[in-house]
Every structure is written in structure tokens, then in C-alpha cells.
Amino acid sequence: MSLELLTLSNPVFKSFTFWAGVLVVKMLGMSLLTAIQRFKTKTFANPEDLMSPKLKVKFDDPNVERVRRAHRNDLENILPFFAIGLLYTLTNPSAFLAINLFRAVGISRIVHTLVYAVVVVPQPARALSFFVALIATAYMAFQVIAAAAF
Amino acid sequence: MSLELLTLSNPVFKSFTFWAGVLVVKMLGMSLLTAIQRFKTKTFANPEDLMSPKLKVKFDDPNVERVRRAHRNDLENILPFFAIGLLYTLTNPSAFLAINLFRAVGISRIVHTLVYAVVVVPQPARALSFFVALIATAYMAFQVIAAAAF
Amino acid sequence: MSLELLTLSNPVFKSFTFWAGVLVVKMLGMSLLTAIQRFKTKTFANPEDLMSPKLKVKFDDPNVERVRRAHRNDLENILPFFAIGLLYTLTNPSAFLAINLFRAVGISRIVHTLVYAVVVVPQPARALSFFVALIATAYMAFQVIAAAAF
After folding, report:
1. Gene3D superfamilies recorded for this chain (chains A, B, C) (predicted)?
2. Fewer CB within 10 Å of terminal CB in chain A, N or C?
3. Cis omega (within 30 of 0) on the bond before C47?
4. From the list B2, B130, B145, which residue is nearest C22 (CB)?
5. At what angle do helices A62-90 and B11-41 cross, to 10 degrees?
6. What's the CA gap between C99 and B148, in Å, rounded?
């Protein structure tokens, strides 16, 4: 029974795997986005990173810090989703619901990055994308708790 | 053999699933706790978040920073537990030991949040709750390494 | 078929489990490294942590901040690897390739910590170790996406 749950022939696992892969690529991209901003603004946090003896370490460039805040928000929200999405898959949920929850998390976290760190869009764009993913992840967590508690 | 390890009929997996769900909910709650402190103290990190033209971005409110430090400590400790707890479950450990290790991590991380970010309790309350979870997680990691190395 | 993928008789899973265990221990060690630097430099972030009434909270010690940057870099890179490494294992990849990818991530992340937070080594030591792990993780993520998308 459970053995098939973690194979790509299970559409729920297939969808989770797809979105987890996409979100890992997105998160790794944040490091490159940070590096681009660091070179553009010549903002380096370590003495050994300074490209010229005239530069000094700097921690307060608003463009660098914005990308870093978006990246940290990913750590806080996407990484717990990886754990709970897998456990939710193992509770054998309705495929329709599960696939749409994974889509909601995946798409809203991509939108969150775009409106936070790529092109700044006025609120409530970021708040909305943040809450869609948060609510979907919390719903899965409560389903997982309910399945394990009884 | 291994197929039953990731089903809720395995009491070790059932316990891991329960505590992972509880800790994901707890971690998502840290975002709400941060938001509450931000609104209470009118401390916003992005220009687009300012509710009034009189406000300026602010990064040094001690109440906001305290919740953020507690949240970051969760990232550093709870997220590795999610990975190692699942792998430890797959090594088919003694149910009694494994369930109590998961309980120790779950309860001590909840206590850590309470004494750090909700009601500040003098040390060594935070240090103790921190080390209980750290030692339990490290023990599981060493068991996982030993199982995989030989 | 899939049931054997998550057993230690699968050399790919065995290797993933080993390196995940090693990297969890390494990450937990960052907390101890931070604590050592905090006590050495008497840099504490919370009033309740101050060991003497003469001390004040301090956030800008370069030795403490260096370890914290290395630790955050672990959160950004090692934690996504835990998720994608498991999913990659479930795609049943070539054992030779997969085992060497896991080794590359494990070894390069240990080197990253050594040259960043233990003995500072001039660039490009840190950049190289960073990119080896990033490229290996991104490769696995693209393989996972390809397996799930078609």
C-alpha cells in the first residue's frame, strides 16, 4: 500500500516532486541574485571578498538586504513545506486537493520572490503571495497531525 | 520490510509525523509572532510596507529582533531534525527510544520558543531547552551515520 | 520496486543517508562554534545571556558574525540538498553518478565551513567549494524535475 505512495506513478508524489524540484532551483537562484546585487553595488561582507584595496566590508546596502530578506523568507516557508509535503503525501490524500495545494505553494512562492526581490510591487502583492503559501502549508500540517494523532 | 516503516502503522513513523506536523505549525507561527511585533512597534523593513508616510524603515527594534532570533534558531535546529528524523525512522530503531527522542525534540523546541520569544525567562531555561533538542538530534544523526557506514 | 529504494541495501540511499548524517552533525557544530566565539569575545545578543552586569548586548563582533554567515549559508544550501537528495534517490539514478554527487556536496560543504569559519583562506577557496555543492544540488533538482514532469 504505502510503497506506491513514493513512486512517480502516484500523481500526488509526482506533483510534490515536481514542485519541490522547482522550488529548490528557485532557492538556489537566490544566492546568484544576491551575488549579482553584491557585485553591482560592491557590497561585500568579508575582507577576503573585497575586489580592490579601496573597498571596505559593507552590510547595509538596501538592494542586497532586500534579496537576503526574500531568501530568508524562503528558508522560513519553503523548507518546512518540503518536510510536510512529503509527510502529507504519505497520508494518501485526495489527489485533486493535494496537487492543487502543491501548485498553490509553488506558484505563490515564485510570485513572492518576483514581487519582493526582482520587481518591487506595492503591497498587498507580497502579503497575499506569502499567505497563500502559509495557509496551504499549515493546512497540510494540520492534516498530517490529525492523521498521526488518532 | 522497509515499506511498512513509512506507514502510520509503524509507531515510530507515526510519532515522527505527529511531532514534525506540530513543529511545522510552531515554525509558521513565528512569522505571525514577528508580524504582531512589527505592527505593535511599527517596525517595517521595506519601504512598501510602511503604513504611513511618516514612518521610516527600521531594523533594530529589540522585540522584533528577539522573535527573529528565535525563528532563526528554529531554522538551524528544527529543519535538520526533519531530515534526520525521517532517516532515523528508516533505520528501524527501537520504538521506545525513538518515540521519546522525537518527544524530547518536540517539547524542548516548544519550550525554547516560549522562554525566548513569548515570556522571557532567565537563563539557563533557554540553554537547557536548546541542548535537549540538540543532543537528541545529534544522537539520531550519529545512529544514522553508523547504520549507513557499515 | 520503490520500496527497496529507501533501504540501506540500496547503495544510493546508503550514501545519501551517510552524507546527510555527516552534514547534520556539521550543521549542529556551527551552533557550538558560534557559542565559542560568543564567549571568547563576550558578544551576547540577549540581555538574559550577559554573564556580568558590566556587559551590554552586542551584535557586530566580526568573529561571531563570520560564523553566523557560514551557518546561514549552510541553511541556504545544505537544507535544500536534504530534500532534493531524497527525491533524487527515489528517481532511481545511476549509483555511480548519485554517490559521487552526494560525496561532492558533502565534502565541498565541509571545505566551505573550514575555509570560511575555521581558518580563513583567501578566495577563490570559498567560492569554489560553494559552487561545487550548488552545481551538484542544482543538477539533482533538474533531474528530479525532468523525472516528474514527463
Report:
1. Membrane associated eicosanoid/glutathione metabolism-like domain
2. C
3. no
4. B145
5. 150
6. 13
